[in-house]
Amino acid sequence: MSSLSARASVGRSGFRDLKVVAKVKENAIITSFLLEPVQAQGWRPYQPGQFLVFRIPVSEETAGAKEYVLRNYSVSGSSSVVGTYRISVKREAAPAPGLPVGVSSCFLHDKVEVGDVLSAEGPRGDFVLDMGSDRPVVLVSGGVGLTPMVSMLHALASTPDRRVVFIHACENGDVHALREEVLALAATRPGITVHFCYRYPTERDGSDRKFHSEGVVSREMLQRLLPLDDYDFYLCGPPPFMQAVYATVRVLGVPKTRIAYEFFGPATVLDIAPPTVTAPPKVEIAADDKAVVVEFRKSGVKAAWDGVSSLLEFAEEQGLEPEFSCRAGVCSTCKSRLIDGEVSYFEEPLDELEPGEVLLCCSRPRGSVVLDI
Length: 373
Ligand SMILES: Cc1cc2nc3c(=O)[nH]c(=O)nc-3n(C[C@H](O)[C@H](O)[C@H](O)COP(=O)(O)OP(=O)(O)OC[C@H]3O[C@@H](n4cnc5c(N)ncnc54)[C@H](O)[C@@H]3O)c2cc1C
What we know:
Rossmann fold, alpha/beta, Ubiquitin-like (UB roll), single chain, binds flavin-adenine dinucleotide
C-alpha cells in the first residue's frame, strides 16, 4: 500500500502526510512506527508528552458508512530529534470471540508497512513535561501508557541533575516495551531511578531479573521508592490503572496541582466518587458586573467561573456529567450548544464547529456564557 492518506496538507496545522520509514516490533503486542513528513514543511516540533491524531481508513464492515476513524498516538521518541516522530502502538485484540478487533491498532499492525503514508494532525495535548520546574519528577505508567513517559525521560536524561523516578507497571516481560531504551537512558547520568513492576512475571522474568517488584503500584512501593520531597507526578495508562494510582498518590498527600495525567482510552473522572447531582440546586449569584458567570441552562445551575482548566471541568465541579471522551478537542463528544456569550479555545478543536456550537473540553468562557446543558 503506498498512500493511506485521504487528503494531504502541509500547513502549520491540519492533517499532513507522514511516511513510515521504519516498523519495529517491540514485542508480541507493541509495534513502533518511525514517521517522517512527506514534505519538509510537514515537520512540527513537539513537547515530550504530546500526541498525534491519525486518520485511519476503515472498511465498511468495521465502521459502517465511515471512511476513517480518528485515533491518538503519543510520540514515544526524543523531541530533540528533528524531522522524525516515533509512535508505539499496542494491538488491541477482540476482548471475546465474535467481537471486532481494535480498528486502528490492528490496521497499523497488520496493514501498514515501511513506505506507506499516514495522515496525521498535531502534535497536540497539554500533558507535557514542565521543563521549567526543578522539582524531582516521578513518571508512572501502566502498559502502553509508557509512550509519553519515554519521550519525557529522553528530555529529562539530557538535563544535568534533575532527579527522576521512572515507574512502569505491566503484566510481564513479554509485553514490556522499550525496556532497554529506558535502562540505557537511566544509565546516562546519576539521579535517574527505574522501577519495573510486573503483575504476573513469568519464570523467565524471575531468572533474568527483569523486574523490581511483583504485583501492582502500591502505596508501600511508592513510599519505599520516594524519599519525602516535593515531586512533580506524571501518570499515564488505562482508566482503571489511573484511578488506582491517582488515589494512591493522593493518599500520600500529593496535592492535585502536582499531578499531571493522560488517559489512554476514553478519559474519565479521576476522583472515583465524583458528586452526582440528580436534581441540581438552582444557584443564585449576587449581581456583580465583573464576575464571569457560567449558566448551564437545562440543569438550572449558575456559578461564577473559577478559572479551572476548561468548561468541561467546571461543569463537573458543579456536579454535572456532560458526555466526553478524549478531553483534548479531538473527538467532539462534549460538543454543546452555546446559547449566549463567547468562548476561547486553548486547544483548537480538530473538527470545524458550526456557529453556536462549543467543545467544552478545550474551551474557557470569554465573559459570562449560557450553555444548553
Ligand atoms: C491522548 C492519547 C494518547 C494515546 N497514545 C497511545 C499510544 O501511544 N499507544 C497506543 O497503543 N495507544 C494510545 N492511545 C490509545 C489509542 O488512541 C486507541 O484508543 C487504541 O489504539 C485503540 O484503538 P483501536 O481503534 O485499535 O480500537 P477500537 O476499535 O477503538 O476498540 C477498542 C477495543 O474495544 C474492542 N471492541 C470493539 N468493538 C467492540 C464491541 N462491539 N464490543 C466489545 N468490544 C469491542 C476492540 O476489540 C478493542 O479491544 C492513546 C489514546 C489517547 C487518548
